[in-house]
Write a structure and sequence with these properties.
With about 425 residues, the chain is mainly β. Helices cover about 10% and strands about 35% of the residues. It is globular and about 55 Å long.
Length: about 425
């Protein structure tokens, strides 16, 4: 009976989403909406504002008109005016890749094998399926982190407090940060149990860590069978303005984030991935606050603008961040018993180094003058270094960087 009711709720929820998109698909336009919202005559007529691309990995990527994307449904964004282009942070001279064996190459998204981008005037949105919604207890909770999620930087966290989240992170705090940047290699870690995940990400934070007003902007890659239905690493974003209580979500699964890119699909799989003792593939992520409009922008790679979080979504981050974190996180659902064997990063410890361990390189922050500045040193934290650990260092090629990760359950982490 309970399963039948759940299926009915899922069907109603999904039908409402598909109805909205179906209405959009019937609309014809003579003028193509410009890349960032301006209307202009297109060089080629688009018969519909909604198209479908089938990715080789099984995903369906919907090309949705930029003015009909999910992010615009947020009540704080009524009459929102699209920001065309932000003022990009001034950059210091780029460093060369580390000359140990072969340097890391850049990964891309699997759906690009179908086509490099959506049509002009649209943005790619990964389609949510009935199967996606059936994997969670309630459709309304799909794409949201647990309210017990916490981040720790001021004290050694407890791994028995009931939330099951474990980290290996580097961080800076106490300053005024207007953004952050790093390159991180992509792996495909093993996930042991349903409801567990493994991720590698950057957090831009402000507010109270032990209260209900924490603001967070997050971006990176994650493997989450519950969220995506597979074990592939996927580009993701997250945001919250109230410590993960009610606001925010992953990717475009709720309103808030405004996408501008027609070539990057948030939530889509990343390919190729790094291999142990083999080629390394990484992605570069920059998140920063535009000094003119105040919105928080995300850039992927060397100049691809993905979109932005409007400043009106936030309280503390409407000004600046006070903490930036980089690193890994897993969820251990087996508290009280054997530790999970869910891997963090590559599944190998930090001391194993290049081509074996997961890394973040060339850590930078954005200052009040909208300039990228190298991080001279970072603090590090891992709840239990016998399960997952982290080691930071500095050199001429990779600046401040660190290796991190681990296998989870092992002889020292039973």
């Amino acid at each position: 009976m309970a399963e039948g009711l759940k299926l009915i709720l899922v069907a109603v929820f999904l039908l409402s989403v598909l109805l909205t998109l179906s209405i959009s698909s019937c609309l014809e336009i003579d003028n193509v909406t410009g890349k960032h919202g301006s209307s202009r005559s297109g060089s080629r007529r688009m018969s519909v504002v909604y198209e479908k691309l089938k990715s080789p990995d099984g995903d369906v990527i919907d090309c949705v008109a930029i003015h009909q994307q999910p992010g615009l449904h947020h009540p704080l964004l009524r009459n929102h005016k699209f920001q065309d282009f932000p003022t990009r942070p001034s950059s210091i001279e780029a460093r060369a890749n580390r000359s140990l064996q072969s340097g890391p190459a850049h990964a891309f998204q699997t759906w690009h094998l179908t086509g490099p981008s959506c049509p002009h005037g649209t943005v790619p949105v990964r389609r949510t399926t009935v199967g996606d919604l059936m994997r969670v207890a309630s459709p309304e909770k799909y794409g949201k982190k647990s309210k017990k999620t916490r981040l720790w930087v001021s004290q050694k966290p407890s791994v028995t407090d009931g939330n099951g989240h474990e980290h290996a992170i580097a961080f800076v705090k106490g300053g005024e940060y207007y953004g952050a940047k790093a390159s991180l290699n992509v792996w495909e870690p093993h996930i042991e149990a349903p409801g567990e995940f493994s991720l590698s990400q950057m957090w831009v934070l402000s507010g109270s860590f032990d209260g209900s007003d924490l603001n967070s902007i997050e971006a990176g890659w994650q493997v989450s069978p519950e969220l995506y239905g597979d074990n592939m690493p996927r580009l993701f974003t997250y945001w919250t303005s109230d410590s993960y209580q009610e606001t925010g979500c992953y990717n475009l699964l709720c309103s808030g984030f405004i996408q501008t890119s027609e070539s990057v699909a948030i939530g889509a799989a990343i390919n190729p991935v790094s291999s142990f003792n083999g080629p390394q593939y990484d992605i570069t992520i920059l998140v920063w606050k535009d000094p003119k409009e105040g919105n928080w922008w995300m850039e992927l790679g060397d100049g691809t603008l993905v979109g932005y979080w409007p400043s009106s979504l936030f309280t503390h981050l409407s000004d600046h961040a006070t903490t930036v974190e980089w690193g890994g996180e897993i969820v251990n659902t087996q508290q009280g018993g054997d530790h999970t064997s869910t891997q963090m990063g590559s599944g190998h410890f930090a001391n194993e180094g290049f081509t074996r361990a997961s890394y973040f390189r060339n850590l930078q922050v954005v200052d009040a003058d909208n300039s990228l500045q190298d991080i001279e040193s970072v603090s590090t934290l891992a709840e239990d270094s016998d399960c997952y650990n982290i080691q930071s260092s500095v050199n001429a090629d990779w600046g401040t960087h660190f290796y991190f990760g681990g296998p989870g359950q092992n002889s020292k982490c039973p």
